[in-house]
Design goal:
heterodimer; A: alpha/beta; seven-stranded mixed sheet; three-stranded antiparallel sheet; 9 helices; B: mainly alpha; globular
């Protein structure tokens, strides 16, 4: 296992998420498919972990298991639950209810928990202020741009007040300027909420820009192949980080591991 | 822009008006036999006379009451069962073959059987309408539920919403546009079925009025009945449109 300074400056923080020996087997059309096999992951409180891996590996499956949407075939997940919800998820692409107004979408986690109207309204308003969209509270998702909708999806996840924020390629459908902007905004939001994040992405740049630690998954069946501690202070800015040679070094290091996985020489890199 | 709107209006109103005028002229000039194709002016005159006497309005009320009551009786179980089939695969697997077998039966074909079972009273007519509405609403609801993006249900599950809240917040609103399409179609079917049923098994109602006019060869009243059914269909689709705008505010056309 390639590893540079494992969990870095979070080693003193309490463990928030533990996944041990995770396996997921699907019944495919032509026999069973092992999406993940023997995946171990430890995430500490307040840590921002980004996950990259070859396309079609078990990134999303892993996240769905952590979110409680899928059950692992074997293995265990435990989340240290101190807040309202153990996890909240920001999904890939369109995930707002088109039939609900923006404020109702944002307040949805509270509605699901049976929280009263007034408290829901206040929480939704506060969250919309934080993502700068309070003037769109009464609009419907169709009236917003893709970038605004993803901000709303993030606001909804913040309202859930979860210990761990799970993000499944949340910015992959956005154009680059919007994506860069949202990456900065997300860091500012997290600086305030102090939440733990597991962020799946297919972009190495994004993984290094956002993560305290980059986890590289192997090709299917996935497990953790390498981990990289990212030494830069948070919040990070695109323009300063891009000028830093260490940023380039790190993205190259991640790519060199990922490359062998993508090209299918999994055994050589991972075992 | 303004001019274009005016031209659209002229075409949309002018073309049908021209058709009516053509008919009027063909009928008056006896190119068309006015016995079978009376001029529209005569038809409208007869229609207005029947409305003023109150008889035709009463028929409309009776037919509409049957239609709407039958619609509700068919739509509610249709939507309920459709939701169940859309949400739970075992229910779908168990019931879909039966539904697919019964759906293609021409609605009016069961009328003799219904008359035997229910007799000539109101319940048979309501059943006819309800039967025609039920399957359409059911299938549209199933389609509506299955068209919902899986990620929407994931969102509900990810915030640990109860089963009931998942249905209320995702399944029902997600299926609603499709359900309304069903309602539109079903009301059209219901109109056909109630008029057809009244032909054979009613003393009152627009269908009965047309059929009685046929029996005494009162062609003008038959046409007046046709105009009335057309207006009823138009009113029904208007009604659905209004309800739809309130029920599906997120879809603006």
């Amino acid at each position: 296992m390639t590893s540079t300074g494992r969990v870095g400056f979070f080693s003193d923080c309490p463990v928030k998420v533990t996944a041990t020996g995770l396996t997921k087997r699907y019944e495919g059309a032509s026999g069973p498919i092992d999406a993940i096999a023997g995946l171990d992951l430890v995430v500490r409180d307040g840590e921002f972990v980004t996950v990259v891996g070859p396309s079609g590996c078990g990134k999303s499956t892993m996240l769905r298991i952590l979110a409680g949407l899928d059950r692992p075939t074997s293995g265990d997940v435990s989340v240290l639950n101190r807040r309202r919800n153990p996890t909240a998820t920001v999904f890939q692409g369109v995930s707002l209810f088109p039939w609900s107004r923006i404020e109702e979408n944002v307040a949805y986690p509270l509605w699901a928990a049976g929280v009263g109207r007034r408290e829901r309204h206040n929480a939704a308003h506060a969250a919309l202020v934080r993502v700068g969209l309070e003037q769109f509270a009464r609009a419907y998702p169709a009236q917003l741009s893709e970038g605004m909708r993803q901000r709303v999806a993030i606001a909804r996840a913040l309202v859930a007040d979860a210990d761990v924020l799970l993000m499944d390629e949340p910015f992959s459908a956005l154009d680059e300027p919007t994506r860069l902007l949202l990456q900065e905004e997300l860091q500012q939001l997290l600086a305030a909420s102090g939440q733990t994040v597991i962020f799946v992405t297919h972009s190495i740049d994004e993984a290094v820009l956002l993560g305290d630690r980059v986890v590289v998954l192997s090709a299917r069946p996935s497990r953790v192949c390498a981990e990289f501690a990212v030494p830069f202070e948070r919040p990070r800015r695109f323009d300063t980080l891009r000028r830093d040679p260490a940023f380039g070094e790190l993205t190259v290091a991640v790519w060199s591991v990922l490359r062998t996985e993508v090209t299918g020489k999994a055994a050589s890199a991972c075992d | 822009m303004r001019l274009k709107g005016l031209r659209t209006l002229l075409l949309a109103l002018g073309a049908p008006l021209l058709l009516v005028l053509l008919w009027e002229w063909l009928s008056r000039s006896r190119t068309l036999n006015p016995l079978f194709f009376p001029p529209p002016s005569t038809v409208m005159h007869t229609w207005w006379r029947l409305i003023r006497s109150g008889g035709l309005l009463l028929d409309v009320r009776i037919s509409m009451a049957r239609l709407l009551a039958g619609f509700v009786l068919g739509a509610i179980p249709g939507v309920a069962l459709g939701m169940a089939m859309g949400l739970w695969r075992p229910v779908r697997t168990a019931l879909l073959p039966t539904v697919n077998a019964l759906y293609p039966i021409p609605r009016i074909a069961i009328l003799p059987l219904v008359l035997v079972v229910f007799g000539i009273g109101e319940s048979g007519k309501l059943f006819m309408v309800a039967f025609s509405v039920f399957f359409l609403m059911l299938l549209q609801t199933v389609a509506g539920v299955s068209q919902i993006e899986p990620v929407m249900l994931d969102v509900a599950r990810s915030v640990r919403a109860s089963r009931w809240r998942q249905y209320r917040s995702v399944a029902l609103p997600g299926a609603l546009p499709s359900i309304f399409t069903g309602a539109r179609l079903a009301l059209g079917f219901a109109l056909i079925v109630i008029v057809g049923t009244e032909f054979l098994a009613a003393n009152h109602g627009v269908g009965a009025r047309i059929w009685q006019a046929y029996q005494v060869l009162d062609i003008e009243t038959m046409y007046a009945g046709l105009v009335t059914t057309a207006l009823m269909g138009w009113a029904l689709s208007l009604l659905v449109g209004v309800v739809e705008r309130f029920a599906i505010p997120w879809q603006r056309r």
